[in-house]
Amino acid sequence: QFCRVSVGDTMDIEKKTVATDTFVFWDMVDFPLPKDEIDSFCRNVKSSLRKEGYIGQVSFRAFGHRVHSSPMTVESVRTGMLLERLSSRFARLNYILVTMIAYATLYPQSNFMLIIKGMAEEDVKVVRIIKEMQKKGCNVLLGVADFDDYFEYPLEVQSSCTLWLWEDLLKGQGPVPFVSDDEDEDDTSDEGSSPKRRININ
Known about the structure:
Elements: E1 3-6, E2 22-27, H1 38-51, E3 57-65, H2 72-79, E4 82-86, H3 89-106, E5 111-115, H4 123-135, E6 139-144, H5 147-150, H6 155-158, E7 162-165, H7 166-170, E8 178-179, H8 181-186, E9 197-198
Parallel strand pairs: 2-3, 2-5, 3-4, 5-6, 6-7, 8-9
Antiparallel strand pairs: 1-3
Helix pairs in contact: 3-4
GO cellular component, one term: peroxisome
Organism: Noccaea caerulescens
Region (Disordered): 177-202
């Protein structure tokens, strides 16, 4: 089961609100937390989602290593987050994808945040499942380590999924803005502003 945590029902910024639930699938081995601060992580993810108008409930599911993630079990139980421990990265990725598509079938038109690092031999499967979920009316959100990971996805996935950088999720910040080539050329923002993902629009 997922733990369900309300992210509130009011918005203090003008965003299109999305009342459907959001399910977070998190590979905690490839995306470890500073000092194992699970409570802070959950709060910041909820904050990130709320800022973008996701006002439904948020459910977390963590996927760790069978041995090395065992110290997290007590903390996970305390927060109500379900922790699955598997023996390898390959096993984690496949279990995440299988579980996610099962929930997409049970909860169509929901939001799914996928925080994983892809594997070259599994990239086709990841893309196929993302497309399958989108056909079910699900909204797919991607949490990635950096832009190199993100741009490994094909353009059709990039343009249809909202992107969060891992470091921004940890801070409770919003996703990387989507801009077209024309908007990118006209951008006169300061150097210190958030990076924008650049998507070719034909």
